Every structure is written in C-alpha cells, then in structure tokens.
Amino acid sequence: MNLFDTINKRRSIRRFTEETVPEDVMNKALEMAVLAPNSSNTQTWDFYWVQSGDKKAKLVEACLSQAAARTAAELLVVVAAPKSWQRSQKRLIEWVKSSNAPKPVVMYYEKLIPAMYRWGIFNILGFVRFLIFNLVGLFRPIMRRPATRRDVQEIAIKSAALAAENFVLAMTAQGYATCMMEGFDECRVKRLLKLKCHDRVVMVIGVGKESDKGTWGPRYRLPLSEVVHKV
Amino acid sequence: MNLFDTINKRRSIRRFTEETVPEDVMNKALEMAVLAPNSSNTQTWDFYWVQSGDKKAKLVEACLSQAAARTAAELLVVVAAPKSWQRSQKRLIEWVKSSNAPKPVVMYYEKLIPAMYRWGIFNILGFVRFLIFNLVGLFRPIMRRPATRRDVQEIAIKSAALAAENFVLAMTAQGYATCMMEGFDECRVKRLLKLKCHDRVVMVIGVGKESDKGTWGPRYRLPLSEVVHKV
After folding, report:
1. What is this structure's pTM?
2. Does any domain span residue A93?
C-alpha cells in the first residue's frame, strides 16, 4: 500500500470486531517498527506482545477497561527502556568496527554513550551533566540533553514513539486497525510486565479489524498554516 | 511508494548534495506529518521551517555545526507546545458538536482536557494531580499522567515524534533524504525561534538529496527476538 494512502487511511479505531490478527501480520509490523530512526541507534525500546489470557485481562483493566483495549484482538505495549543501551553497546561497537566506520564513531559508542546515558545513583551524574552543560552553554553551543535521568527516559520515549508510528502504519497497510492508548495506569502496567523502575510505558496499542463503531465522526486537523511557521 | 519499501529505504543521512528541495515536496510531507495520531487530538505541535539565511546559519550553529545540518537544503524544527491545546480546544468542541459525537466526548474537551493539561503556577496543579493519582491508584487503576508540567511536555513530545516520523517517511517516498537530529543546543534553538519557556524542541530535521557520503555503512538492528517479548 502506498505511503500517502496508508497515512491517510490510518485512524485511531476505538472498537474492533471479533476477527483475529494473524501472527505474520503482527510480526511484519514489528519488523517495520524497529526500522524507525532512534537515538544514536541505541535501540532503547521493548515491545511486549501480551498474549496470555490472564495478563491480557489485567492489561485491559490497567487500560481502564476502555473499548479500544477490551475489544482488541492483540495488545502491544511499547516500552522505553533507558538503560538498554547497555544491551546494544557491545554489538554496536563490533558492528561499527567491522563496517570500517570512522574512528570517532567507535569512540562515540565506547565512551560518549555511557557518559551521556548513565545518570548515577540518586541521579547525581545527571545533575553534574546538567550543571556542566548549562555552564558551558553560557559561552558556546552545547547539547543540553540528556542530562538527568528524566532526560534519558525522554529520549528513549521519543525513539519508541517513532517505532510505534511505523507499527501502526504497517498494520494499516496490511488492512488492520489500531488505537494508540495513553489512558492507562502506568504503575499497574509496569508491575504486570515486571518492568524495571526506570522503564517507561510509552503507549499501549490495540490491534484488530475495525468495527463499524470504530470512530464516531470524520477526522479533524488544524489548518496547516497554523502549525507550520516559515521563519 | 509502497509503505514497506519506504520504511526500508529511510536511513539517517548525514550529508546532503547541493540540490534544493521543491516547496511542494516539503508541503506534502508536512501535510502527512499532521495526520499522525496525537494525544486527545490536541495537536500540541509546531513545525518551524527555517528559511531565512541568517536564521538558518544560527540554527546550524545551534546544531553544533554537524554536517547533517550544515549541508541540509532545508531545516525543519519540530516543537512540542504543551500549552497549545488552548489553540485547538474551541475548534475541537465545535467539531465534535457538529459531528454528533457522544456527549462524553464534548465534556472531555470542555472539562477534562483543561483539568489534565494545566499545571498551574509553580507546577502546583501538577503536584496536586500527582498526589491524587497516586493516592487513588492505591485502590483502583487510574491514569497516572499527565500530572506535572514535565508530564504534559512529555505527552506533547510523544505526539510531535509521531508526526516527525510521518514527515521523514513522506520525504523518503518523494525521493529525498532526512536526518533527525537531537544533537543541538535547545536553549539557543528556543531563543532563535522565540519559543515559550515551556515549549520543547523535539528534534531538528535536515532535508536534502543524499550525498554519496550520507552514511558510512550498512544499517544495524538488534534481532527482533531480543526486543519483542511475548508474554
């Protein structure tokens, strides 16, 4: 399916039929998700495909039992895992070395990533970075983030959102509907999935075939001229 | 262009040729950007298309003069504007009324959105919400965010990221390359664009035709089995 048509067709569908979603379709969409750009290619994301009936029931409850979760054939929890740069670091270093990357890139993964992503006990490293960045920033341009723990989480959340957008587009292109949900109890979802305390639940995506009660009206967007500023 | 091919083709290109980008191509990609799903359809995003030579030079400097900014034909700054729900609120209410939406939806935009998005002076409302959510949350599932100002920013950042992903895919489908940059001096970018203090710069996107030095090697992603967890 053509990109523009896919983007145009995608709507947040709040009610699904009872039709199931083939595993292949989900896998294809997940493959597309991880091809999204992400911060320094650290891939600090996790995707929990909740399949067990018991866990699904608890997840629906944590999503405040909204129809988009309750009626979904499949539920995917998109998680930002800010410490998981450690999972990819070793392999990223091997990969950049084997692909003859310029030396600074190797250094970047060996030294700079840990220096930027670690926040230290009680966020101490984070505050030290915050001070340094803002002090240096008085005199010359410098990256201001990630400084604190929350900044590192924010960067991971951003990357996970990019992947989630690819996921919903890929579901749309395959003829299935989705609903990105932010209305959930993050503490309960984290407990259910046994996430680490610094992990963040970015969204829960409901997937299925669109029911005729999937939306209640046409789409509305502000005119482009109000959100695009030519300066 | 087919969605899967587009997603597969998109890479972060760090060096562009001197070829310009037609205005139509940019406009089409911006149209696609705002069709992304976003939090409660509040559309808390702004896109600054920096065209003036002087501002562009300053923006490149704020992007630490990296090649992806320096050589870009066009630069787009994606901004999360957490207070701009006020811009869309009135029109969203009119729209839901005119499209015969269920009553709770009207109430949602009239009452709930302001109650959730306002953080009050010194973030006081934010902390009150935080306390209430976490107290109620002891007994039953409840949405935990947005509580504080930073939460409202985070939600806006997430929505803006979804739009940005549509934007880069739409550029790719039209034969142009992009680079999402997070390596910039947020304070200097905010000053340059005269943003409000609570606005957040989500990313700067460089756009142009890919140069043969655009990437230094093949793409690398972790195996899907390490980031997708079936539970």
Report:
1. 0.97
2. yes
Query: Helix or strand or coil: residue A177?
Result: strand
Clarify whether residues B59 and B167 are in a common domain.
yes
Structure tokens at A144: 């201001």
Q: How far apart (Å, rounded) are the C-alpha atoms in residues A11 and B35?
A: 9
Q: Is B201 in the same domain as B175?
A: yes
ipTM of model over 0.90: yes
Question: Which of A35, A49, A132 is the best residue to mutate to test the B interface, defined by the most B CB atoms within 10 Å of its own CB?
Answer: A35
pLDDT tens, position by position, B130-173: 999 999 999 999 999 999 999 999 999 999 999 999 999 999 99
Domain with B100, as residue range(s), is 85-149
Q: Which residue from B minimizes the CA distance to A56?
A: B231
97-156 in chain A: CB under 8 A from chain B: 99-102, 105, 137, 141-145, 150, 154-155
Task: Please report, to the nearest 10 degrees, the dihedral formed by the alpha carbons of residues B221, B226, B230, B231 taken in order.
Answer: -140
Digit-coded pLDDT (tens) for B111-128: 999 999 999 999 999 999
- Which SS3 state, helix, strand or coil, does residue A204 take? strand
Q: What total number of domains does chain A contain?
A: 1
- Which pair of structure tokens corresponds to residue B35? 């069709």
CATH at residue A156:
3.40.109.10
A residues 8-67 lying closer than 8 A (beta carbon) to B: 8, 10, 12, 27-28, 30-32, 34-37, 39, 41, 43, 45-52, 55, 61-62, 64
pLDDT tens per residue across span A55-113: 999 999 999 999 999 999 999 999 999 999 999 999 999 999 998 888 999 999 999 99
